[in-house]
Design brief:
The chain has one domain: Porin, CATH 2.40.160. It is 7% helix and 62% strand. It contains one helix and nine strands. A hairpin with a 5-residue loop joins strand 4 and strand 5.
Length: 217
Amino acid sequence: MTWQRLLSVLLFIGIIAPTSGQAQLIDRVGLSGGFVSAHATDNIDQLDFDRRLGWTAAAFVEKRVFSALSVRSEVGYIQRGFVDTREEIDEDGTILSIIEAETQLNYLTVPLLAKLAYDVSPASVYALAGPRLDILLHRNAEDFEFVNSPPVENEIVDSYDSVVFGGTIGFGVETHLLPMRLFIEGRYDIDVTESFSSDVPRTVRNNAIVVVMGIAF
């Protein structure tokens, strides 16, 4: 879709532009890593997905626009997905077993975030918000291994689109006590476009709660 390509270009420019030209165009660089609690919503079958735990790591550059506002460009790796639960039921309707199958979706993630900070020295608190481009790097799904019945293949993972657009919002706290700055952030990621390819008659969207710690120079 045209607007999706346009957003890809804008995100690419947001990543490349701060790193080009003279060094003073960049106010800081940093690294972050942390944990992910991933989930998915399905508005057709209303399936009961459980959360999948994963991890994330990223590098970023940041440019101050004015005293309280900065723009951050990131490139990272993030593990998303979910856990699907199915019941094994006999002819009388008795539940024989409850089986879980994990779906793993690992992405290259490229957020472009506005950062609004408030200084409460020796620290600052800040809010983050902006668009995000995710490129699917790896997918895997466990089959449903029932106790008394043949296994059922988990085919949902094959329907995921390779490129997804989303949004990120979050809050953080950053210390000013050392030459480098330490920070901790809580974020919420959600897909704006459908996570499934357009030819699948089903609407599924990823979402994730992300907690990261990092260092900036």
